[in-house]
Amino acid sequence: MSLTTTQFIKDYRAAALTLFADQLENLSVRQQYAALAFVVKGYYATDWAKTKADYDARQQKQLYYFSIEFMPGQLLGSNLLNLGIKTVVEAGLHRLTLDPATLYAAEGDPGLGNGGLGRLASAFLDAMASVGMAGNGNGIRYQYGLFEQRFVDGYQVELPDDWLRDPYMWETRKENRAVIVKFGGQVELRPRRNGSLQAIYHNAEDVLAVPYDIAMVGYHTKRVNTLRLWAAEPVPGRAHNLAEKSRVTEITQILYPDDSNTTGRELRLRQEYFFVSAGVQSIITHFKRQHEDLHLLPQFVAIHINDTHPAMAVLELMRILLDEEQMTWDEAWAITVATLSYTNHTLMTEALESWPEPMFAGLLPRLYQVAQEVDRRFRATYTKRYGELLVNRAAPLGDGQLRMAYLAVIGSHAVNGVAKLHSELLKDSVLKDLYTLFPARFNNKTNGITPRRWVQLADQPLADLLDQTLGQDWRRDPRQLEQLRAKATTPQFLTALHAAKRQNKVALAAVIQATLGLTVNPDAIFDVQIKRLHAYKRQLLHVFGILEAYRALKAGEDRPARVHVFGAKAAPSYRYAKAVIKLINAVADLVNHDPDVAGRLQVAFLPNYGVTLAEHIIPAADISEQISLAGTEASGTSNMKLMATGALTLATLDGANIEMRAAAGPASMAMFGLTAEEVAQKQRDHSYNARAVYEADPVLHAVVDMLTDGSIPGIASEGPEIVTELLDYNDTYFVLADFQSYVTASRQLDQLWQAPAEWGKRVVENLAASGQFSADFTVQRYGREVWNVLPEHPVD
Ligand code: 26W
Fold it and tell me: Which of the following is catalytic: 637, 649, 652, 778?
């Protein structure tokens, strides 16, 4: 959009007067931020309305991305960048003697997700708007997001994330689009003359679902899509006592903080049905405003199920097509399968949701009836050809449970994993039987990241250097970065690259100083591991690497200085993960206060890791730790972000690490560890003996013993607990097995660090290849191969 600084200042002053009846200068930073967001909202309002009108006028097929989690991050910077007015507005702010960084920092970060899955959903929405795909988000407007993490004496403490205490400027309440969602009661099926069954609800509990829409502004496309988040409210005009009121509002009160363990709680089931039913109902209402015949639905609507949490969309769409549209089962089923598609994000069995039939039937009686019929017809269709055994294993209802992953596959026309290895492992393991039945549905869609947030916004020094070196085309098509391989070999460029990274490290050092009171050496290697705390992600292996280095330095060995930076929240009920958090903080205390290693080894565990903190940490990383046990991390996305800002990856052959290495080159990453096949083999033949590895390796032995011999103060219970998992429960995630090759690979990076030109060369290889992992390419592949929703402004 064309905007002058003068015009912006005029608009901004007007907004301050309108919103706060006062001059800009007199307002608090929070109010100045709110007025600025208000102005920006006005700048894309027309495009937003026009986008919707265009889609309707052109009868554009639209994709609805159903996800129980979204992590959009702060939106002011990305909205200004995507509108193409960031420079103009920042110039205006300076002229008003306001500091853009202070206003950016005043924005809350809606933590409506746990980790990878939620952040990916938001990256996809940004990407779809930026390539001109008609893609919308559908989720929940939690009143409380993911808990705020504090460390008290090294222990994780969770505080409520009351993110709505200040009005959220980017949302618009659309009560005119509210719908009713029904829970409980009994359902009577009364046959109609046309043979279809009318479902009559008795004593059902009605909940009002009120949508809040947030604009998803495309990058220089004038396309603005919608993220719709639903809030639960009592139906107005119905008498509700306090208990009834809170029973309703609690549905969207809080995000479940687990990212790998199904809680099986009824409230979670209510949350899942609530946003699915509200979403499907509003999609069908919108469709019917334009089309009579719902048989045409798959031509104009695609609904994507982001992991199993929205899998009830299969049953809800069937319910509406059967009960309200009076279709036959086969008609309804054909439409449902053609409209729906499903992505699996984890192989962890404990993360695959299933609901006890009694709970499901009690809360969702009509949906349960539909589920029974889906199950009956599934068995009737496939048993003859595939036999009872396989069909019993693959049927949606089994062992008294409704198995949501199976329901999602059976009710969708496409099923994908999020990296090549993961998509293959899905076929060999958790979805093996369904792959036998529906091989054509299975495909892979390797994850991606949005280079606008992680490079253009978070890493200004690198972005400026890339502009100087390549011009600006890379900002539209990051595959242009491949040109770096040829252009970026000069000592000048490598020096400038190192300077850009150092600038980010100095900035992060200031954050570490302010947050932890720790002064870190910006010329040390910044070794970063940022992701949820989970045993399979092996933060423990990283700790063992630190202890190995600590012992070596104490023994007088010389090593390049390293600062280990951690960011990680643990699910509150995940005891082992919380023990590892305490261990990391205890090791930080030990190492950071030991004069023998001062300035050569430091550990900074920054609390409350999330999107905004990631934007500070990622550009400052030299080493990216992607050390999960091979075969456990579905894809990873922090690996791609750290690659795109010039870190070298220390990695196992797991998830997307494999594809990143293939893209950047065999020497571009420091690989180590067992392969997924080797792990599977050892698991199959039970040939792994962790204690034997421990006994056979004196270095490892000494490191493990530090967890119980008092060398690390403050872990009297956590240390033994962790060692018990390793030596008595045979180390589920092969930490001991991969220790030596991990240390070797890490030491190779120490060597490389002492050859800056060589290090720089590897960084260039990674930067050059990083463009391939833009989410723009990922969503285009989904659009062309699964959703049949095409990009208006394709990047290819
Ligand atoms: C029911 C509790 C629960 C909640 C969330 C179970 C599982 C989840 C998510 C699927 C966990 C998750 O975030 N998975 C991550 O998804 C990323 C995006 O595809 C991948 O990059 C990560 O590898 C994967 O762990």
Answer: 637
